Amino acid sequence: MRFATFAAIAAVFSTACAVNPAPVPLSCDAEGRQLLIGNWSGEYFTPDGGRAGSIVFNFAPEDTLGYAHGDIVMAPPRGNQYLLPVDQGGISAPEETVQVLTIEFLGVVGHQVGGTLSPYRDPETGEMLNTTFEGRIEGDKISGTLTTVHTRSMQVDVGTWEVVRKHS
Fold first, then answer.
1. CA dist 135 → 10, 43, 86, 106, 165 (Å)
2. CB burial class (10 A; 0-12, 13-18, 19+) of residue 6?
3. 21-51 in b/e burial notation, b at 16+ Cβ within 10 A?
4. Per-domain residue ranges for the chain?
5. What is 4-166's CATH number, 1.10.150, 2.20.25, 2.40.160, 3.30.70?
6. Could you read off the pLDDT of 89-117 as tens digits, one per residue?
7. What is the pTM of this model?
């Protein structure tokens, strides 16, 4: 993968998140509910090198209260690579370098997926960012696009994301 080094480091960091991912408000029709069941993981990136990160998402058959569980981990680039400093075999980075982003809402209608992230600060500029995403469920893969709008400059960044269902 394009960000293999970053993905490996982010995967270690996100393990804590994956153990108990945050609840995500979910609106889902019957078909979408069946298609979404499982444990999903993957990554996202913007082609301009602006951002990349890992995604963990879980939806169990018994989740009937309108919630799924998921986390997104984001790290800004360091030069042209997504690398975090390593300190004696562990991850050591300033708090603002790596962020766990909150999925504010997820909607699924049939094979179509869409949602929003809670607003968050750009770790480099401090500007507030608003991100929406859309995608399509195809078997054991969900892929799509994400759109981030910078609230002050109104700059728009478009990226891609993909998660794959894990099989036990």
1. 22, 13, 34, 11, 15
2. buried
3. bbebebebeeebbebbebbbbbbbbeeeeeb
4. 4-166
5. 2.40.160
6. 444 444 456 788 999 999 999 999 999 99
7. 0.76
